[in-house]
């Protein structure tokens, strides 16, 4: 599903150049649930941003579902993001003046789907994350766990190839974190490819594979025995 | 623009950000509102002053006598000058070619005019037929004095509209009725109206010959008024008017033995000169109002730009989210602009309509001679609204464009 070869990325800060990614080679096949770990500054967020087409690599190749991702202009990047990717953020990033339902329907709006159709679809996804009766609530009327579930529903709405989660449980307490992880595991069980950036070991253990980054290089890439989140709730 | 989905999105955003929308709208609406009111008052002042001028012909020249202030040829100062019929005859015959309308006036002070039980004190003026044009009067009923009346010293009278309303109330027949002026019966042959309003309409006119005979005027006249033949340009008109008044002045001073440099004995009022001064003043006032109006609009534009800048800044994160979800840059720009144009045009037209309604309702109630019928050229107002909308769009475009250029990763980091 994802193929990365010799990926380099550096940031210029004044006269200094900060080499963040120093040649990442990395494959993810369909249906995997991968966690990317590393201390801060290891380059894990940069990697995720490049995977999410929010940032561009300096050199190296990136292929997503057979499509080479390179020389993107803003317009094509936006189209690819919409078509291939679903984002889940640490701080949820819901639009605060839109209801849960409208938030979930937003990626569908950018797909050009008609209003009635996208509302039906958004409703189905909210049902899937167990928030059907909350669909008319604004984000600030929801708890953290509920917000993240709305965000997950939104990420799923455009039926993406890959879900990218940046510290999805970073702002949640342990119990809620596990509930969210349970939902993510369920979605993975249905065959969706998911990448999670995290620095929490218990969360990483709930994925199927842990990739460890240090100083811009992958130092460890192992499959793990998945811990089901439901057992810990 | 006609994308229904986009409209739904805009309305959703607007309805959920009422305060923001209201504030944007307010600065636009108040800008347009103030401009409309200012232009209205400016126009009203222009109309008011123009109306003051229309009470008489625009190029009228008055010549009236005064009191000598200088000793001359053995005569003491302080001598009252009395103009006579022959002064009028001479000046009109001498300048026959140059004159358009002419009339001398013999005025009766404190004339009591009565009809039946009603009576009132009005200015009674003995005049020539041309006086109608000199006074810029027009007939509501009947006719003005004619040369036959003057030659035969007919006892006919033309009354002002105000006099008619006072004396005749709602009497059916007016023409052919007889009114008494200081006890002498005159037949009403016409009713006139004057753009100068009620003050000018509370007069009655009789033939000058009749007035002099009946009210003991002999050959006396109070003043003379003339207009000259129209000229091609204002400058030419002013030049020939000055030439004419100089000539009349010199003649009258010679005839009445007045020192040539005595300015108080013969006075000449040349309306053309005053008109120019008033039109210059009017131009200044108009320019002032436009200046204030344009400043208001600029303030409105700055206000809109400011708010647009804040809106975009405030929405940076939202824009980042939208981009991450697949919004193309053009759709971000479109969204921000569409919203701002919709809000500015809606608010602009609201301000325009409120301003026009206010002028329409309050305008006629204004009771001053200096403001009359304050209206706004609708096209001017409309184009200002469009200018404001375009300016708002341009002002909104740059922040929107910048926001659309921000990388979503940067926008999302923006806490």
TrEMBL record, chain A:
Gene3D superfamilies: P-loop containing nucleotide triphosphate hydrolases (3.40.50.300). Residues 2-233 form the ABC transporter domain. One of its GO terms (molecular function) is ATP binding. One of its GO terms (cellular component) is membrane protein complex. CDD domains: ABC_MJ0796_LolCDE_FtsE (cd03255). It comes from the Bacteria. Keywords: ATP-binding, Nucleotide-binding, Translocase, Transport. Belongs to the ABC transporter superfamily. Macrolide exporter (TC 3.A.1.122) family. This is ABC transporter ATP-binding protein. It comes from Zunongwangia pacifica. The lineage of its organism: Bacteria, Pseudomonadati, Bacteroidota, Flavobacteriia, Flavobacteriales.
From TrEMBL, chain B:
Keywords: Cell membrane, Membrane, Transmembrane, Transmembrane helix. InterPro entries: ABC3_permease_C, MacB_PCD, Macrolide_Exporter_MacB. This is ABC transporter permease. Belongs to the ABC-4 integral membrane protein family. Residues 292-408 form the ABC3 transporter permease C-terminal domain. GO terms for cellular component: plasma membrane. It is found in: Cell membrane. Residues 21-240 form the MacB-like periplasmic core domain. Signal peptide: none annotated. It comes from Zunongwangia pacifica. The keyword Cell membrane applies. Its main location: membrane. It is a multi-pass membrane protein. The keyword Transmembrane helix applies. One of its GO terms (molecular function) is transmembrane transporter activity. The chain crosses the membrane at residues 21-41, 287-312, 332-358, 378-398.
């Amino acid at each position: 599903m994802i193929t990365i070869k010799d990926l380099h990325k550096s940031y210029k800060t004044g006269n200094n150049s900060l080499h963040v990614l120093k040649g990442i080679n990395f494959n993810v096949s369909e249906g995997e649930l991968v966690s990317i770990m590393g201390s801060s500054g290891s380059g894990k967020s940069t990697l995720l941003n490049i995977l999410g087409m929010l940032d561009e690599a300096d050199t190296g190749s990136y292929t997503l579902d057979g499509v080479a991702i390179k020389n993107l202009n803003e317009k094509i990047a936006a189209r690819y993001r919409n078509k291939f990717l679903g984002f889940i953020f640490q701080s949820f990033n819901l639009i605060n003046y839109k209801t849960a339902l409208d938030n979930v329907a937003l990626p569908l709006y950018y797909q050009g789907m008609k209003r009635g159709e996208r509302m039906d679809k958004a409703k189905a996804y909210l049902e899937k994350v167990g928030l059907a009766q909350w669909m008319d609530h604004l984000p600030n009327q929801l708890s953290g766990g509920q917000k993240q579930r709305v965000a997950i529903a939104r990420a799923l709405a455009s039926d993406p190839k890959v879900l990218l989660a940046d510290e999805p449980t970073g702002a949640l307490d342990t119990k809620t974190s596990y509930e969210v992880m349970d939902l993510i595991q369920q979605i993975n069980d249905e065959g969706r490819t998911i990448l999670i950036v995290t620095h929490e070991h218990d969360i990483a253990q709930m994925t199927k594979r842990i990739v460890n980054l240090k100083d811009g290089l992958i130092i460890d890439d192992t499959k793990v025995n998945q811990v089901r989140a439901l057992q810990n709730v | 623009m006609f994308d229904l989905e986009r409209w739904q999105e805009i309305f959703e955003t607007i309805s959920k950000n009422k305060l923001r929308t209201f504030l944007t709208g307010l600065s636009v609406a108040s800008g347009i509102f103030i401009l409309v009111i200012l232009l209205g008052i400016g126009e009203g002042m222009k109309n008011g002053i123009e109306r003051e001028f229309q009470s008489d012909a625009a190029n009228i020249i008055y010549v009236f006598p005064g009191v000598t202030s200088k000793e001359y040829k053995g005569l003491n100062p302080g001598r009252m000058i009395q103009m006579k019929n022959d002064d009028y005859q001479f000046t009109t015959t001498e300048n026959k070619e140059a004159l358009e309308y002419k009339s001398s006036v013999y005025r009766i002070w404190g004339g009591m005019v009565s009809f039946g039980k009603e009576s009132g004190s009005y200015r009674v003026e003995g005049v020539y037929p041309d006086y109608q044009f000199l006074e810029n009067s027009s007939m509501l009923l009947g006719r003005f004095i004619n040369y036959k009346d003057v030659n035969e010293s007919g006892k006919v009278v033309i009354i002002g509209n105000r006099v008619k309303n006072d004396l005749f109330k709602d009497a059916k027949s007016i023409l052919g009725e007889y009114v008494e002026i200081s006890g002498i019966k005159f037949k009403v042959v016409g009713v006139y109206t004057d753009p100068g309003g009620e003050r000018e309409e509370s007069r009655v006119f009789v033939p000058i010959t009749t007035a002099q005979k009946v009210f003991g005027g002999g050959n006396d006249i109070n003043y003379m008024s003339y207009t000259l033949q129209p000229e091609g340009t204002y400058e030419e008109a002013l030049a020939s008017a000055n030439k004419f008044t100089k000539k009349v002045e010199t003649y009258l001073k010679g005839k009445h033995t007045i020192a040539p440099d005595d300015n108080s004995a013969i006075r000449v009022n040349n309306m053309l000169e005053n008109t120019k001064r008033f039109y210059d003043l009017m131009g200044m006032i108009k320019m002032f109002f436009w200046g204030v109006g344009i400043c208001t609009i600029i303030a409105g534009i700055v206000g809109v730009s400011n708010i647009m800048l804040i809106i975009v800044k405030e929405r940076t994160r939202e824009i980042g989210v939208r981009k991450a979800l697949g919004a193309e840059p053009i759709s971000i720009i479109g969204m921000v602009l569409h919203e701002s144009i919709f809000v500015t045009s809606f608010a602009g037209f609201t301000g325009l309509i409120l301003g026009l309604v206010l002028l329409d309702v309050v305008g006629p109630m204004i009771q001053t001679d200096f403001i009359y019928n304050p209206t706004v050229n609708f096209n001017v107002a409309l184009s200002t609204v469009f200018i404001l909308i375009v300016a708002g769009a341009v002002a909104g475009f740059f922040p929107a464009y910048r926001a659309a250029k921000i990388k979503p990763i940067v926008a999302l980091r923006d806490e």
